[in-house]
Design goal:
Two copies of one chain form a homodimer.
Chain A: H1 3-9, E1 18-23, E2 29-30, E3 45-49, H2 56-64, E4 96-98, H3 100-106, E5 112-116, H4 126-139, E6 144-148, H5 152-164, E7 167-173, H6 178-185, E8 190-194, H7 198-209, E9 217-219, H8 225-230, H9 233-242, E10 250-254, H10 259-273, E11 283-289, H11 294-301, H12 326-336, E12 340-343, H13 345-359, H14 365-379, E13 389-393, E14 411-413, H15 417-422
Parallel strand pairs in A: 5-13, 6-7, 6-9, 7-8, 10-11, 10-13, 11-12
Antiparallel strand pairs in A: 1-2, 1-3, 4-5
Helix pairs in contact in A: 3-13, 4-5, 9-10, 10-12, 11-12, 13-14
Domain Tryptophan synthase beta chain-like PALP (chains A, B): 91-395
Protein name (chains A, B): Threonine synthase
Enzyme class (chains A, B): lyase
Chain lengths: 426, 426
């Protein structure tokens, strides 16, 4: 993953407004390529853009005339201008639901919205990031799309690779639940069980990337990570456009690696700089499950560094014990006047039911975490109920049915009216 | 459900362009109301519209400027003009996927598309029909939304009622699989298990509608059926608009009750009459599972009537043994030059995998039926591969995981490169 790899792959790369990779820590720049760590300081690389050609109202019109998916924001993403014509899974433009019933229950008066990403092609926000990684993989001439995963990501990679005609090879712990295996295997790519736990899977993937056997392989969340991560910016873009090109006052965002939260902040900042929204304060709140709350613990202790935890929570899609972007999340929460909070598994389940009962949205456990944290933050006074608030639901309840398995029939009756009346249903 | 009920409920009803209910058999007209059978001949009632005020290009612009859901077609549906401002689940505007990989495998050269309705709020096309029924329920002053169901419909009704602030009461057989119970129960409405089979559930619901205890209850697929059924027209509208206001040459549509297929035909006819698409021939093909193929059997035998079957297929969402709209389906298939075909359960599973492998779309068993039937129709020469063809996927694979439970790991390795190479994965 050294500079020479970059030099050999970037000459013909067209990724639209993406100008270079830039180190988040030291600012060192390298050409666009399949690298993710700074050669100077080992800091994370991210995309630097050239947006200088854009005139605000022209850009707004171009976006509004674009397709009903993330490619309406192609001018702001590391993708070629004709991306919408290429085979991809085209996620995004998911509903921003005005959650008036939930607002009443929580006492929010300033407008409460759920950004519901369960409508994406494989029903999680991962489709957004994988769609980006796929375009980078195409630009770099890769032919295999890969990842390590224990759930949502596996399905998103399998589906995107199938649509785009890539080979896919997804690595998972060999003893994953059968339901999750089916959801990943159905797309027909290689699905490789690794005899070991998720850490073993990740270690093996890193080894493979450095080996000739991994040549031509794009690991969406490793060597394509700088491109992949940019997909989360589209959540910020969509929220603002769906609010009528307005910034929300407060956002509640789940934290797994923390990447999504940092990219939402980046997206909001870009919209301000481009003049697409007015420059006004907003607060970003991070949400974790108590059983995997390293960022929340650090936030409350006033620390700048995040101490890893061993995850133990039903919110498995957020169960990253050593979140790479944890320190950046802490910085953003503090800088914007937000906070980081966590809820326990029981509160997660309660929040899933609360959201379903009030708004008809069946969220994954990660959505239970954000709704539960929003409730807790309102109760503790950290979230201002008089302000416009957006809570993210990043996945689908159908994928975490076990978490709410206790939910069942409210009555059982015989098929006649007497039995119906006896049950008090009339 | 007699005429006097109608008279007392329709004076203040605003359902947009819906002018009356009209009998499909004898043409007898009655005012809009919660009735579904003709008082003269017991034929099915459907909505008659007044579209006379529309100028074609003005209407087209109005639709194109509308929201990214079915309410963009509000001018053509039995809903008030301000429907988009009311709390509803807002389904529709789901992707029409250009399925080039699948086309290559099937030998289709004229353009093959999947209309993928798994992106709807509760991941099936039922959200379209329930959203309509909800607006009718609101117009008629109902306060409880109800249905009998064994699956997709229960979730759609629960979610819509929750969003709109209706009470919901869904009736299911008491011994339904636990996963399906959870998907229906999560929305917090009444979920009543009936000691009996699905026929018993339906019989009980009919009894309840005729009883004072059922007053104020809207059964989406019984006393609200004429409104409910219109939701399927939006599939036709979207397909044509997404093709650039063009009719497809061929459509492959699943058959359960047959209502969806007849309403798709109605929607296409309306677009022609309104001048929104050119008047040209199209063929509608019906798809069933062999284990519940009463319409297919009748079609092949040249019959006009449909002989009921006892369903036995994994495609449970299509398992209606006595399809009410069967004769109309036969008529449409014959009139348009289409056909009705069926595939067995093994072919359904193969087709689910084929669609996932080629296009990254994980379909419910009903989607396996349509894709499998499309394949069979091409092989038999009934479907012309040189013509533009749209195949419907009406549901989500996550809801019928059992059907593909055999899908699994392609390899298991130890976490090292030697094991990786031994498995032939390099």
């Amino acid at each position: 993953m050294a500079a020479q790899t970059v030099a050999s792959t970037t000459n013909s790369v067209d990724l639209g407004p993406a100008a270079a990779l830039s180190c988040r820590e030291c600012g060192h720049r390298v050409p666009l390529g399949p690298v993710f760590a700074c050669e100077e300081c080992f800091g994370p690389l991210e995309i630097a853009y050239d947006y200088s050609a854009y005139e605000t109202e022209e850009l707004r019109k171009r976006i509004e005339a674009g397709p009903a998916n993330i490619w309406r924001y192609a001018p702001l993403l590391p993708v070629p201008a004709d991306v919408a014509d290429k085979p991809n899974i085209n996620p995004g433009w998911t509903p921003l639901v005005k959650a008036d019933n939930l607002a009443r229950e929580l006492g929010v008066t300033g407008g409460l919205y759920i950004k519901d990403d369960s409508g994406n092609p494989t029903h999680s926000f991962k489709d957004r990031v994988v769609a980006q990684a796929l375009e980078a993989a195409r630009a770099f001439g890769f032919t295999t799309l890969s990842c390590s995963s224990t759930g949502n990501l596996a399905g998103a990679v399998g589906a995107a690779a199938a649509r785009a005609g890539f080979r896919s090879c997804v690595f998972i712990p060999h003893d994953l639940e059968q339901g999750k295996v089916v959801m990943a295997a159905i797309y027909g790519g290689e699905l490789v069980g690794i005899e070991g736990n998720y850490d073993d899977v990740n270690r093996f993937c890193s080894e493979l990337i450095g080996d000739p056997a991994g040549e031509g392989w794009g690991f969406v969340n490793v060597n394509l990570r700088p491109y992949y991560a940019e997909g989360s910016k589209t959540l910020a873009y969509e929220i603002c456009e769906q609010l009528g090109w307005k910034l929300p006052d407060q956002l509640v965002v789940p934290i797994a690696s923390g990447s999504q939260l940092t990219k939402i902040d980046k997206g909001l900042q870009e919209l301000i700089k481009l003049g697409l929204v007015e420059d006004k304060p907003y607060k970003i709140f991070g949400a974790q499950a108590e059983g995997c709350s390293p960022v929340s613990v650090a936030y409350k202790a006033g620390h700048d560094v995040v101490r890893p935890q061993k995850p133990n929570t039903i919110a498995k899609s957020l169960a990253i014990g050593n979140p790479a972007d944890g320190p950046y999340v802490l910085d953003i929460a503090r800088r914007t006047g937000g906070a980081v909070e966590d809820v326990n598994d029981e509160q997660v389940v309660e929040a899933i039911k609360l959201l379903a009962r009030t708004e008809g949205i069946f969220a994954e456990t990660a959505g239970g975490v954000t709704v539960g944290v929003a409730k807790k933050l309102i109760e503790s006074g950290l979230l201002d109920p008089s302000l416009t608030t957006v809570v993210l639901n990043t996945g689908d309840g159908l994928k975490t049915l076990d978490a709410v398995a206790g939910t069942g029939l409210t009555a059982t009756i015989r098929p006649n009216l007497d039995s119906f009346r006896e049950a008090g249903l009339a």
